User: Fold this.
Amino acid sequence: MKNTLYIKDLKKFFYNKRILITGNTGFKGIWLSVILKNFGAKIYGFSLKEPSRIKNLKLFNLDKDVDTCFGDIINKEAFYKYSKKVNPHILFHLAAQPLVKESYANPYYTFKTNVMGMLNVLEYAKFSKSLKSVVLITSDKCYKNKELSSGYNENSELGGDDPYSASKAAAEILFSSYNKSFFKKKNIGIATARAGNVIGGGDWCKDRIIPDAIKSIINKKKLIIRSPKSVRPWQHVFEPLSGYIKLSYYLYNNKKNKFNESWNFGPNLEKKVTVLNLIRSVFKYLGIKKKIIIKKNKQIKETLILRLNCLKAKKKLNWKRTWNTSLSIKKTAEWYKTYLEQKNILQFSKKQINDYFKGGI
Assistant:
């Protein structure tokens, strides 16, 4: 098995493989669809309809290229029916309620989606005869918050003070139980992937810093941020996606289930970049001067420092980061600048994909 996978290797492996992506209308799901479609895979999606006014499926031409079944992951019957129709070789589970703020407003739905949704996928994987590789996406927020500047590794204590973080920790515990109870004797590669705070073009999700900034420009409104000093493991969306893709490859060729574990995919522990510094850099690349209003929300408890230790992925998967934080911010700003200037965004997106993957993963 090769340590580095180049575009030719990825195209050879993914060509004509049936891939089911839950949450394919979300930020990561859209980009994963475009990338794997570019590698020759047959993409199928099970997801809620896009909540944003800006429709990425159409923007990326995926409304024509991807067979999407619109449904809620907590609807077991609908999900099973569609999955059996697709009979996927590889499954990426990204469907989730992904927002901390929303989890305070709707804790029941957050737990139901993030835990029962995971359960539905695990139950399908348990009985599927076609599946050989399953990557379950959780979050870096599944770790118990201890404000560690050294970063959390895969053996760090799970926890979560807010409903979102707790739901992701619960999903990880659920996976661990099923992995030990049902998948040890089944010929299937299955693992969870923990990453968070990705940036990149095409993100229109509410209550996320860069999308909020771009929408403030489009709508000509003030930009309000609530945690200016928070430090996050900022990374371009291609970074964790390359990890998920490489992990799916190793899981597919799993001989003794040795990759059936949890994996961190995050940036190197480089200089700290706060929320305020991030948004100032984006505005600088866009050539825009805009007043930033700070309005803290005392009802929402947020982690000040959140970093991941990714040594396991680097050693066992030979996964490495390609774009550092500065370049990731620049690439993100360039995408939105292209969008705001109404240029060919699909062509530009494919160029960014080729630029990223040309050196292999």
